[in-house]
Amino acid sequence: MYKRFSALALALALMAAGPLLADTAKGRIKDISKKASTIQLDVKDKDPVVIRFDQNTKFVEAAGIDDLGPPDLIKVEYQPGKPATSITKVVFNLPPGVEIDIRQMVAILTGSQPYSLFDARPAKPYLEGHVPSAKHAFPDDEKFLSLLPQAKDQLLVFYCGGPTCPFTGKAVKIAMDNGYTNIKGFQAGIPGWTKAKLPVHSSPQWVETILDPHHVVIDVRDLSASSAGHIPSAVAMPTSELQGLREQFVKEQRKAELPGVKDQRAQIVLYADNHTDQNLLLAYKELREWGYGKTTVLEGGLSQWTAEGRPTQSGPAARQITYVKQLAPGAISVEEFAALEKSRKGVTFLDVRTDQETASGVLKGAIHISLDSLDTSLDKLPKDKEVVAYCANGIRAEMAYQKLKGLGYKVRYLNEEISITKDGGYSL
C-alpha cells in the first residue's frame, strides 16, 4: 500500500511540475530554413540538433525568426518531435551608457573626434570581413591591452558578432578595469553593420589565400584599367555592367542574379584602385541588394595590394565567373545529384522532411523517413546501396548524414534548397 501511494504521489508531483518530456537546448545557430521552419543548432560538447518552430513558438529578446541568424546564441524550450514552445535570444548586456546604435556608430566613424575602433572577434572572422578602419583586438589574447592607445581618455569603440557575442562586453570590462574612461560598445556588431548594407572590408592577407574557384573576386574598374593590372583569378565586371544586369532582370520580372553564381552564400570580394571608389561602393550595394550577403570590399584596394607586394597580372582579365561551390564533408554536388537521380544505379534517396512537408510531393522512388523518426526506422534503409539524404535546404539532411555515417552507412547528402512536385519531379 505504501509503495502504491508513493508511486502515485510521485506521478502526481511530476504531472504538476509540467510536461514529462520537456527539454532545453542552448547553442549557436548554424543555419535557419524559414521554408522548412527549422533551425540547426550547434550545442557545445554535443551533436548538433534541429529545432522546429511554428506560429505558436514564443520568441523572447527577439521580434521573431527574422531577428535571428548565425551565429546567434539561443536557448530553446521544446518537446522532442514537436515545435519549440519558446526560443530565447541570449543577449550580453553592456554597462549603462556604453551601448551605441548604428546611427551613433556611423556618426563616430564619419565625425571629427579621434577614435580607436576595435573588432573583438577572433582573428579569422576579422580578416574575412570587418567594419572599415577597425583594428583587431581579441580580449582573450594576452596582447589585448598593448593594442589599446596610451591615452586613457581617448574614445574606444568595441564590437564583435552581435548581441549574443560575449567579446564586446569582455573588451569593455578589461578596458574599464585598466582605467579607460571613454568607452563605447556597438552591440549590434558586424551583423547589424551588414544588415544596414554598409561596406565590409576584407584584409588583403586573407584575400590572397582565397584566389581559387571557390571564391569570387571582381574588378569593378573599367576594362582598360583591369587589363593594365589585376589580381590573379579576378573577373573584370565594371559597375556599369552590374547596373545593366539589374535593369535587364527588372524588365524580365526576375530576381537579379550574378551570372554563374546562384549560391547567395558565396563569398564575393570587390575591388577598385582604392576602397573609397564610388563605383566600387555602388557595386557593393548592388550585390548586397541582390541577396549576396557575404559580399565584401578589398581593404585598401589594388593600391594597397600592390604596395604590399602581392601578386598581379597584366593583360585582359577573365570576363566570366567560374564559381565552384566548395562542398562540405559528405555533401554531393548538384550535378552529381541530378546524374544519380536520372540513373538510379546503386543509390537510395532518403527524404528526411516532415509528413506535412512531403504532402506536396516526394522525389520519385525516394524513401521518406522524417529526421525525428530515423532512429526507429533504419530497417527501411538498405545497407547495400549508397544513401543520398535531402530535405528542404540541407540542414536536416546533414544531420541524417552524420547519424547514418556513424552507424556505418555509405551516405552523402544534398546541401541545397530543393522543391519537390506532386509528380515526384524536383527543382534546385
Index terms:
428 residues; alpha/beta; Oxidized Rhodanese, domain 1; six-stranded mixed β-sheet; five-stranded parallel β-sheet; 27% helix; globular
Structural class: alpha/beta
The biggest sheet, with number of strands, parallel, antiparallel or mixed sense and barrel status, is: 6 strands, mixed
Average pLDDT taken over every residue: 91
CATH superfamily assignment of the largest domain?
Answer: Rhodanese-like domain
Dominant shape: globular
Please provide a brief summary of the model.
The protein is α/β, with parallel strands linked by helices and 428 residues long.
Describe the overall structure.
The protein is an alpha/beta fold. It folds into four domains: 21-89, Copper binding periplasmic protein CusF (OB fold (Dihydrolipoamide Acetyltransferase, E2P)), CATH 2.40.50; 102-195, Oxidized Rhodanese, domain 1; 201-307, 3-Layer(aba) Sandwich (Oxidized Rhodanese, domain 1), CATH 3.40.250.10; 331-427, Rhodanese-like domain (Oxidized Rhodanese, domain 1, 3-Layer(aba) Sandwich). Helices cover 27% and strands 20% of the residues. The chain is built from 13 helices and 22 strands. It has helices at 2-17, 102-110, 123-128, 167-177, 189-195, 204-207, 223-228, 239-251, 278-289, 301-307, 334-343, 355-358, 395-406; strands at residues 23-33, 38-42, 49-52, 58-60, 73-78, 86-89, 115-119, 135-136, 155-159, 183-185, 201-202, 216-219, 235-236, 268-271, 295-298, 331-332, 347-351, 367-368, 386-390, 411-414, 419-420, 426-427. It has a six-stranded mixed β-sheet with strand order 3-2-1-5-6-4, with helices on one face. A five-stranded parallel β-sheet has the order 11-15-14-12-13. It has a five-stranded parallel β-sheet with strand order 16-20-19-17-18. Helix 8 (239-251) packs parallel to helix 9 (278-289). The longest helix has 16 residues, at 2-17. It starts with a helix and ends with a strand.
